[in-house]
Amino acid sequence: MGIHDQKEGKQDRDDIQESFRSFVDRTLALQGGAPINKCSLKCGNEHDDEPDDVHVDRWISNALELGVSELHLCLSSVTRHLFPSNIFSSTTLVKLTLGTKLSIHSFPSDTSLPALKVLFLDSIWCDIEEFSVWFERENFSNVLLAGCPALEDLTIDQKSFPGLPNVVSSKTIKRLSIVYIRANDADWFRTVALDTPKLLTLFYSTYARHRYRHCNLDSLVKATLDLHFSENEIFDEAFEPNVTDLMIAVRNVKMLHLTFSATEMNMSLMKSAFPGVTKLTCCVSYSVKEVKSS
């Protein structure tokens, strides 16, 4: 389902959108109580008006009432701060995507998603004054992740949007992907904790932080570290980015992939982080696409 921009034509845009709303309402009504396996809802974009929260919330609630197991929301709305409360208390959701460009201040304190296995947070928007609160441990790990006792796959893809959790704590997560490449709003002085004892696969692409503490990655098999270092920031020595503890935490992995930037900046850390390695070769590969002449 989706609401997209419409070029001016014979029919007024408001009439087109109202017709679409009626169509969605009728479609959901025709389910007649039959369960829904998958529901994807996309509303709004940079050229569109803000999505109608009343209608959108009703569609989400209807899908949840019909026992949807896979829900993907792509709602471009910087004015939205809350979702229908039942989205965080569903007993049937197995896969959930929340995005994009959403401004969410907090999760319900009674968040409970007992069946959820896959969670994708895509470009969650937060004001600069709010983003650190939204991703605080008390709000993110202690409320959201704690309410997902079966969660196995977590993706936090912030791209260039402010906000990144400083603590990811879960006893069940097996796959974790974190992407954040916004240097201007990076909280350089925060420490990062990854308390994920059952984690098997890690993809970590962001700017290196001041310190990595309590990195519980004992089960890790494969890690990809795409660590960025700002050339424009000047730090006191005590607060310089330090990834030593992170490198030590991943030293027992079977497969370790480092980007060129991460390798270049961390060669001096390898000896202490990987005491069993006597020789380390850095390989930089290039992809060449053959172009045939006409």
UniProtKB/TrEMBL annotation:
Organism superkingdom: Eukaryota
Signal peptide extent: none
Family annotation (Pfam families): LRR_At5g56370
Domain F-box/LRR-repeat protein 15/At3g58940/PEG3-like LRR: start-end pairs: 56-280
Name listed for the protein in its UniProt record: Predicted protein
Organism: Arabidopsis lyrata subsp. lyrata (Lyre-leaved rock-cress)
